[in-house]
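Input sequence (246 aa), recorded before submission:
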Amino acid sequence: MILLVAVLSMAAACGRTESDTTATPADDGPAKPVALWGAEDGFVTPTTNVLRPPRVVLYSDGLVIADASKQLRLTDAEASETVASLENYLTGQPPTAEPKPGAPAVTDVPTTVLGVRGKDGKLLEVRAPALDQVADFYPKELSDAKKLMEGLAARAAAEGTDYVATRVRVVAEGAASAEGKPAPWPAGVPEPSGSVDPVWQKDLEGAAVSAITEAVPAGQEYGRSLFTTSSGVLFVLSWRYLLPDE
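Predicted structure, token format:
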């Protein structure tokens, strides 16, 4: 009997070990971002600054979403390899990287943001100002990390399907001097309230999502059109789908 119990205990332990090394462990909670590439700041409009999504997000369940508009699903092996490679590239990099001395001064361009969730569960993020413009003055690992995520973006564009969600973020930017014929404010979509400085934003769900997506066709980045409120104020109305973790 003692021998039988020992054998059964060893078998159970082996089973646990195999489960623990699965590429994407079962998780009762929602999927979390495990790798990301995005941009922030730069000389952009207030609307772009508010609506700009990450260029690519890889979630713990293998879902890839690019520009909040395209999606595809990686296998467990592909997702694990992507995370491991990105972690190797970013480990040891400072939170905000600086180019080597001698790099030309570049202003008004976005800062590249790269992130990976480490084995400790924490999201490691590295920011590299003007990485596209002065890549040769940064560690090669940062360019390699960006190329890795660019590959996912290209694959999502070529192989993926349209990304849609049940929630959207709407932004209204004042357009008192805009040219063109405005449309009446979409029925079912809240009108801006309070001070609009410089934009008004609101996250919507339910029937309001259908109302805004039908009134403002989605463009390459996000939909935008000229509308007038019930009080006669003109706004450029824009939106995009929210990501699962937003």
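Checked by second reader. Confidence is low (pLDDT under 50) at residues 1-28.
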